């Protein structure tokens, strides 16, 4: 009798959890063909290692899109360039044949921000993610919000799922829309976006 009571007591939380509104996490939709985006980092200078790390971070997190270096500079879907200003990027999602650009601003480095975090964040814009400066350090799109002591350079599960959703229909889902440039002001001033 005691064993039956213990067994029944063990089932109560499981049954309540299933009926009390808890929803199991669903896997991100997978496309039939992974979208491959190519990038050109020939103009990125000292950012080269951080770019490799950012591509690795996104490739590890994603199912529906894969980043790889372009075979030639003119064939890239987006480019990385070292600049003297603040980081900024085209807001995607960018698809094959696109024309995105990531400007890797030296001013973020001068302020003490981690290179791999900056590149992974800016690449998130290419993949269609907006800024969330109020987010925690664990969110790559929180950018400069948590301050320069935050060195997390990996997207969280929610960000990863959104990018997978952006590319779930494969390359045929290329959307014709106005492109925006997101300027990430990696200090206390507010960021802004301009239409390109």
TrEMBL record:
Catalytic activity as recorded in UniProt: Hydrolyzes proteins with a preference for Tyr or Phe in the P1' position. Has no action on amino-acid p-nitroanilides
The protein's Enzyme Commission number: 3.4.24.77
Main location: secreted
Gene3D superfamilies in the cross-refs: Collagenase (Catalytic Domain) (3.40.390.10)
Cofactor(s), by name: Zn(2+)
Top EC class, one word: hydrolase
Signal peptide range: 1-27
Compartments where located: Secreted
Annotated Pfam families: Peptidase_M7
GO MF annotation, one: metallopeptidase activity
Entries under InterPro entries matching the protein: MetalloPept_cat_dom_sf, Peptidase_M7
Keywords: Disulfide bond, Hydrolase, Metal-binding, Metalloprotease, Protease, Secreted, Signal, Zinc
Family indicated by similarity: Belongs to the peptidase M7 family.
Protein name: Extracellular small neutral protease
């Amino acid at each position: 009798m005691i064993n039956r009571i213990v067994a029944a007591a063990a089932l109560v939380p499981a049954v309540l959890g299933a009926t009390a509104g808890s929803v199991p996490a669903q896997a991100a939709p997978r496309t039939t063909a992974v979208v491959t985006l190519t990038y050109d980092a020939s103009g990125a200078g000292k950012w080269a290692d951080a770019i490799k790390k950012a591509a690795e971070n996104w490739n590890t997190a994603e199912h529906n899109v894969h980043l790889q270096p372009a075979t030639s500079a003119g064939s890239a879907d987006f480019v990385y360039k070292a600049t003297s200003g603040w980081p900024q990027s085209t807001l995607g999602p960018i698809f094959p044949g696109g024309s995105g650009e990531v400007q890797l601003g030296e001013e973020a480095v001068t302020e003490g921000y981690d290179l791999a975090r900056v590149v992974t964040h800016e690449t998130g814009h290419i993949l269609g993610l907006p800024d969330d400066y109020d987010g925690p350090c664990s969110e790559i799109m929180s950018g400069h919000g948590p301050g320069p002591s935050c060195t997390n350079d990996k997207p969280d599960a929610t960000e990863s799922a959104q990018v997978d959703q952006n590319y779930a229909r494969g390359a045929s889902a290329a959307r014709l829309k106005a492109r925006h440039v997101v300027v990430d002001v990696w200090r206390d001033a507010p960021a802004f976006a301009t239409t390109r």
